[in-house]
Amino acid sequence: MKRIYPLLAVHRIEKAETTEWFFEIPPEYDFDKVFNRHFGLIKGNEFKVEAELTGYAAIYVAERIWSPDQKIRKTGEGSIRLTFTATSEPEVMSWVLSFGSEARLIKPKRLVNKLKAELERIKKLYES
Q: Which of 10, 68, 88, 119 has its CA 20 to 30 A from that of 110?
């Protein structure tokens, strides 16, 4: 079965035309080696992430692979602690925020501080 790569944003294509030119994926190219090694499509420097999740977020997260090196530890009734390697701070922040109060970023501290600052900016949007 031919693998479909989920990185093309088809909705952004404005025009297409048929040409004589064909692109062939080089035989030595391995999509999984490039993109399925760490959390995040944006490829920056690797860093370790640790997050605590509860409720629906814990169930959702525990059923998926976020990074091949991930570790999930049950920390209580309905809560887990997930550690994994990522390469994109913006994607980790969005991921944590997507779970609302069911997720708490623990590490890295620099990203926790960025997240706190972002939450303050968000809070100010809703004051008034």
A: 68
